[in-house]
Amino acid sequence: MAGRSNSHELADVVQRFGKQLVEKENLSGQQIKTLFNIIQCRTSNLGGHKEKCTCCGEERYSYNSCGDRHCPKCQSNKQAVWVDKVTRSTLAVKHYHIVFTVPHCLNDICLWNQSAYYKILFNAVWQTLYSFGYTHYGVETGAIAVLHSWGQNLSLHPHIHCIVPAAGYSLKGEWKHIGKYENYLYPVHQLSNTFKGKFLDSVKRKLKVLDAIECFRAQIEKAYQSKWVVYSEASMASAQNVIHYLGQYTHRVAISNPRILDISETHVKFIAKDYRDGAKQKLVCLDGAEFLRRFCLHIMPKRFVRIRRYGIYNPITQRNMDLQFEPEQKPDIEELANPKAKETKAEMIIRLTGFDSGQCPKCKRGRMLVVEELPRIRSPAGYLPSILLTFLK
């Protein structure tokens, strides 16, 4: 396929070991579709355009992206735009970073029904924060929550990163600053025990409804005996810094291309941080098919939302409670008479990333203009796993 770079990429791993994985594992339709998108991303299969510099005549071909949220090449611009959008709607107060994790002994339940498991996890996290906001400070608080399902070695490790503001809306209808401590918003041990109780209770209720409680009773009993830890990090003063910090987590995928060091005939070598050893970077070597199997564990169910806003950061709550984060200002008469032109997507990307894709990479003076459209190559009709196999080695 035209358009592939020389560095090691996830797409290369899929092409080399995807056939082994498809023949060995019973993949879901969503997993098959994601792998198919990744190997086509920024290749001639998806079409594109030919560009020519207005100054030096330099020519280049640009191919379209797949846009899949699990593709490591399609997330940087989305992340920059998301950060810019959220920064505008965040309270100018310090925030706390809180991470909720669950024991690995419950992973069997997660693999059995990912969608239900992650939904319960989100609900338990917010119900815990919601109850603590009222019991400790008497306010409606809020949170921006991001689900991650992986560890550094691609193992299944579901956890949710939360950014919680040190402010809330009281029953008297007034804004109130909260947070007595520098390193944590609420007592961590109390937070852990409450989260543990809410999560396990919800899991048991769901399993009873699905008539599967007996299948996972041993895992639940082990989880009750385990010690649960909610991690809380020191507060951050600047709202803008908070959102940029959270932006590191929002559009991440299980593994990025720069972490992949080598792809042999049988194995994949990549870099992973070992948090048990001071976050040192270490080399991990996995069988190629096993590497892809682990990656597929983190492909979200169709239409499942990984980033959620709660409480005073939820648009519906803001509307129902008539919340205003900034005082109303009368529009400037001069601005109404001479409205600014709406910023284009290309202009926004340049402002946020500092990278101008329209500038000639050779002479740095001219602009790259489209001189020819390259049509997309239509995939053959048929069963998707069979179509995927035709693209694999």
Which tags fit this structure?
alpha+beta, 5-stranded antiparallel β-sheet, globular
Q: Helicity level, as a percent range?
A: 25-40%
Largest pleated sheet? 5 strands, antiparallel
Shape: globular
Q: What structural class is derived from the secondary structure elements? A: alpha+beta
The SSE order reads: HHEEHEHHEEEEEHHEHEEEHEHHHEH
Low-pLDDT residue intervals, each spanning 5 or more residues: 1-6, 327-337
Percentage of β-strand residues:
15-25%
Q: What is the CA-atom radius of gyration, in angstroms?
A: 24 Å
Integer count of domains: 2
Q: How far is it from the N-terminal to the C-terminal residue, by CA?
A: 12 Å
Strand order of the largest sheet: 9-3-6-5-13
Give the rounded overall mean pLDDT. Answer: 86
| Helix count, DSSP H or I runs of 4 or more residues | 13
Number of strands: 14
Summarize it:
The protein is 38% helix and 22% strand.
Helix and strand layout, with pairings?
Elements: H1 10-24, H2 29-40, E1 48-53, E2 59-63, H3 76-87, E3 95-101, H4 107-112, H5 114-137, E4 139-140, E5 142-150, E6 156-165, E7 167-170, E8 175-177, H6 188-209, H7 217-225, E9 230-236, H8 239-250, E10 260-263, E11 267-274, E12 280-287, H9 288-296, E13 307-311, H10 315-320, H11 333-337, H12 345-353, E14 368-374, H13 384-391
Antiparallel strand pairs: 1-2, 1-14, 3-6, 3-9, 4-7, 5-6, 5-13, 7-8, 10-11, 11-12
